[in-house]
Model the fold of this input.
Amino acid sequence: MADASLATQRRQRRFLQHLADTGNVSAACRLAKLERGTAYQWRSHDANFRRRWQEALDAAVDALEGEARRRAIEGVDQPHFHQGQVTGTVKRYSDALLMFLLRTHRPDRFAERADPAPHPAEETAIDEDAARAELERRLDRLAAGDDPADDAGRAE
Done:
């Protein structure tokens, strides 16, 4: 029984290494020559294996982030062609990857912000309410015998 356990441990290690390398369960199973059902069965019955599975996926995502950072900051050499022949390379950087990384790691500074200006319909509603209140105030002054025209001089 101990031999089966050691063999299982070796198979699990091989699968987890491929999972960390690929970030893809199907590919890791194929490379480890393991049935997907077996991997999922191990994960559902073994908390330690489930933890290591998650660590492998985290490692795969860390590698993706590292590659995104490299492409954004260091750039990628792309061949430059002339008449079908490579005549050199051009360094290309990814502004989109750079912004994605900044938004992910510093959302308070780089997240896309909602437009702070009020919607025109909201602005009109606010203006209408203010105009209505001003009209009522002037009508009250008229009813009291005051001249509402005096308000214009006071506002300035």
